[in-house]
Each structure stands twice: as structure tokens, then as C-alpha cells.
Design a protein that fits this description.
The structure holds 2 protein chains of 2 kinds. By secondary structure, chain A is mainly beta. Chain A contains 3 helices and 16 strands. Chain A has one domain: Porin (Beta Barrel). Chain A starts with 7 loop residues before the first helix and ends in a 7-residue tail after the last strand. Chain B has a domain of 62 residues. The chains are: A mainly beta, B mainly alpha.
Chain lengths: 360, 115
């Protein structure tokens, strides 16, 4: 009876869970060939933290942005992992007519999740997790990873409030053939209005194909809200790192009733510049172009007018985990004003074992 | 009504997966290493192969691990410097979940970065 209902919620949920079930079915047939490492290295709990201080000028208004983001990774046995990331940040700027910088400290639980690595093909996650829509939110968001410090204009599309979901997720990556890797994520999220743990009631999925040879990844994402107007969001992403060059290019497109748009970003590490090699190999040049179009339903987390923006940045890596970042961007919004956006700052990341890190 | 069954189905799948993993882990102890896992098998029985073969396997592991390290880790961030082995074991498990790298990639990369 349940399967014959014409409710779109059910059909969406069925689709995702059937995909997950099919993947588990694959696992049934092939998990028996899985081997254990003869002497697996026992992982140790790890504390990591990203920190940064980003100053920016947006349309002539200065902003100071200190940020720290502690991460805890607690492995249990050979198949379990508890992981969490919190963010504490402030956006300090002078009120009109004042020279004093003021602002509130914002606290956020980015994720707090329990992962169970079921087999070679599937990992089950429960708790609060970053919404797997596109690649930016999950993989590129931390300030010590992102090449440009400003968020893409379309980032809020498809990821829900605070970029996170609360519920259960199936995900994994496996070799479809020796030259093709497939990765996927399918989730169900419950609605939460708890302060700092907000999430929408939704289902969604993301599928990507990675070709290790040319280092090319393409994929698509889908989200269906199970609340309010039950709208859909979808998107596509790609990333490419050609082997001969220290260069990468990435991009995303997303569309929902709140808006649509794309960003495309490329970064080039100046390793191969034939002058001042000792210094130039620490420098990274970045460029990003993006466009955003307002949708039929306004959203507080998105710009209220159609906007084009380009940015150019230069980063200097003192070490792989400590760098100086800078960028200049120009925002074109014919109906809402044009403005320049400058950013400058430092980002740092530390990793600290909570126990003996060496193999005994 | 509509909210209950996806959760129940997900929990059922989770339970099924748990059973599968326990079964496969038990059976894996009795499985003979096969061709696709040959590098891992070489690690399992280093004393049965002549030294030259072992060193060849080590070199193959190292080359494959380095290749997969460059291919996968650089997709999102700069290649990190090496931390103690047990820290790397945690980090690579984190990356398996976060970046959905494959099981084989995880093993090769972990071996490469902890040697």
C-alpha cells in the first residue's frame, strides 16, 4: 500500500534508499574479498584547529574577521570514527559614525557525526553533517583550504540553513573500473530549530565520477525539501588538475527556486616560473568568476539582486599549513550597486595527537 | 507517517550493513590473497618471498602510493607534510569519509605517508 501512494516525498525517499540498498547489494557480493591489513596502524585521537584573521573592505567598509575552528577526530576500532568541527568567528566593523569595531561572536557546530565504515563501498553517518551538495561545502569550505576567502554567491543553494543537515547519510567511493572511480552520498535530514543546530527536513543525493588518469571529476547533486513548499534544488560540479601543471580548475552550477548561478575558479602555483624560483614556488595565483540570478522566492542567505563578480587573489605559503592570503574582487550588481571587495589575512592549521602518535 | 518509513528503512540498512561487515571480517581471515590485492599480500608474508621480490613490492607500493597521494590529496588542498603514523591513520580515515576516497586509495596512501 505504501508503495502505491503517489506522494512525491515517498518516491523521492524510495529512490535514495533504493540506491543505497543497491550499493549494499553490491557489497554483499563483493565484501567477502575484502582483506584486513596484516598489521593495521592503530589510529590515535587527533585534535586539529584552523585559525585565521581575515580583514576585508567591502564597498569601503572595513571588516575584521578573527576565526578559530577546532576539530576533533576520535577513531574507535577499525571501522568507527567520531568527528566534529565547530566554528567561532566574529565580523567586526564600525557602526555608522563610529570608529570602534563592534560585532558579535558567532558560534556554530559545523558537524558532529558518527561514521561507521561498513565495507569497501559504504560508510554510514549519523548525526549532524555537512550537506553533500556540490563540492565546495564539504571539501573546500575551511579557511585553510579555500583559495579565496569569500564564499561563492551560490553556496547557500541546496545546503540548508548553516550548510548542515541532521539525520542519516550513506556515502562512499569505489572503483567502477581501474580507470573510473565513483563516489556518492545519499541522506535524509530531519528538521531542527535548535539554536546552532538548525537544519531542514530534506532528502538529497550527490554522485560523482573521478577519472584518476586525467584527474578529472564531474558530478551532480539533488535536494528535495520535505517541508514548506517542498521545492527541489539541483547542481553540477567539476574539478580538473592537469598532470603537467601545478594548476587546478573547479566549478559549480546550482539552481533552486531561490536563485541560480555558477562559479568557476582556477589556481596556479608558480612553481615553474623561471625567475626567483625559491620565492615564486611559494606563491599561488587564483582567479574566480561567478554569476548569481535571483529566483522566484527570496532568501535571506542570498543576494537580493542579480550579481556578477570576479576576484583575483595571491596567496603566499610560508608552509603548507601557514599562509598569507589576499584578493581583490569587483562586484557588479546593476540594481543594487557595484562595489570593490578587498581581503587580506593569515590562515593557519595545526594538528595535534591526543596520545602517542608513533607506532609502538 | 511519511517521516517514519525512511528512517526505519535506513536503520534496517544500517543493521544489514553491520551484519555484513562482521561476516566479511570473519571470512576475510580465511581468504587467500588474490591478484588485485597482491601488494597487500606481499606485506602479509614478507618472510616467504626472497629479499629482492620484497624490495620490488615495496617499491611498487611506494610508487603507487605516491601516485595516489598526489592524485587524491591535491584535489582539495596542498599536500600536507607528514605527521606521526597513528595521526596519519586517523587523518586518512577522516579523508575516506570526507572526500570519499576509495578503500584501495586509503591503504596505498597510508602506507606511502607512514613509511
Amino acid at each position: 500500500m505504501l508503495f502505491y501512494r503517489s506522494n512525491s516525498t515517498l518516491s523521492g525517499g524510495l529512490r535514495i534508499l533504493f540506491v543505497a540498498a543497491a550499493l549494499f547489494g553490491v557489497a554483499v557480493g563483493q565484501a567477502n574479498g575484502q582483506l584486513e591489513d596484516p598489521e593495521p596502524i592503530k589510529p590515535v585521537p587527533v585534535f586539529s584547529m584552523g585559525a585565521g584573521f581575515i580583514s576585508s573592505f567591502e564597498g569601503g567598509t572595513p571588516h575584521l574577521g578573527p576565526l578559530i575552528s577546532p576539530i576533533f577526530l576520535i577513531p574507535i576500532g577499525q571501522n568507527w570514527l567520531i568527528e566534529s568541527r565547530d566554528t567561532f568567528e566574529a565580523d567586526l566593523s564600525p557602526p555608522p559614525g563610529s570608529n570602534d569595531f563592534k560585532g558579535d561572536l558567532q558560534k556554530e557546530v559545523d558537524y558532529l557525526q558518527l561514521d561507521y565504515i561498513a565495507n569497501r563501498y559504504a560508510t554510514i553517518t549519523i548525526g549532524r553533517f555537512l550537506t553533500p551538495f556540490g563540492i565546495y561545502n564539504e571539501r573546500l569550505y575551511p579557511i585553510w583550504i579555500r583559495d579565496l576567502q569569500s564564499d561563492p554567491l551560490i553556496l547557500p543553494l541546496g545546503v540548508g540553513p548553516t550548510n548542515a543537515s541532521t539525520g542519516v547519510m550513506f556515502r562512499g567511493g569505489f572503483n567502477a573500473t581501474p580507470k573510473i572511480e565513483v563516489n556518492y552520498a545519499a541522506y535524509f535530514s530531519a528538521e531542527s530549530s535548535t539554536n546552532r543546530l538548525e537544519s531542514d527536513r530534506a532528502i538529497g543525493e550527490r554522485v560523482g565520477i573521478f577519472l584518476p588518469g586525467p584527474r578529472l571529476e564531474v558530478g551532480g547533486s539533488f535536494e528535495h525539501l520535505l517541508q514548506d513548499n517542498r521545492s527541489n534544488a539541483f547542481g553540477f560540479h567539476f574539478a580538473w588538475q592537469p598532470r603537467p601543471l601545478p594548476f587546478d580548475i573547479r566549478g559549480e552550477y546550482a539552481r533552486s527556486q531561490n536563485g541560480s548561478g555558477y562559479w568557476i575558479e582556477s589556481a596556479y602555483r608558480l612553481n615553474q616560473v623561471p625567475v626567483w624560483r625559491d620565492q615564486m614556488r611559494h606563491v599561488q595565483a587564483v582567479g574566480r568568476m561567478q554569476q548569481f540570478y535571483v529566483g522566484t522566492v527570496a532568501s535571506e542567505s542570498l543576494l537580493p539582486v542579480n550579481t556578477d563578480m570576479f576576484e583575483f587573489g595571491l596567496n603566499y605559503y610560508f608552509q603548507d599549513n601557514f599562509r598569507f592570503v589576499s584578493s581583490y574582487g569587483r562586484q557588479f550588481a546593476p540594481l543594487g550597486g557595484n562595489e570593490n571587495v578587498w581581503t587580506m589575512g593569515l590562515t593557519y592549521r595545526l594538528v595535534f595527537p591526543l596520545g602517542n602518535g608513533e607506532v609502538e | 507517517m511519511t517521516a517514519k518509513w525512511p528512517i526505519l528503512a535506513a536503520l534496517a540498512l544500517g543493521a544489514l550493513s553491520l551484519c555484513l561487515n562482521l561476516t566479511s571480517a570473519q571470512e576475510a581471515k580465511n581468504v587467500t590473497p588474490n591478484a588485485p590485492d597482491a601488494p597487500r599480500a606481499a606485506v602479509a608474508r614478507p618472510n616467504t618471498a626472497p629479499p629482492s621480490a620484497a624490495s620490488q613490492d615495496d617499491a611498487r607500493w611506494r610508487m603507487e602510493g605516491e601516485k595516489r597521494f598526489a592524485t587524491n590529496c591535491g584535489r582539495c588542498h596542498q599536500a600536507p607534510h607528514k605527521y606521526p603514523p597513528r595521526v596519519m591513520a586517523t587523518a586518512i580515515r577522516h579523508m575516506r569519509v570526507r572526500a570519499t576516497i576509495t578503500d584501495d586509495d586509503m591503504r596505498y596512501i597510508l602506507r606511502y605517508i607512514t613509511q
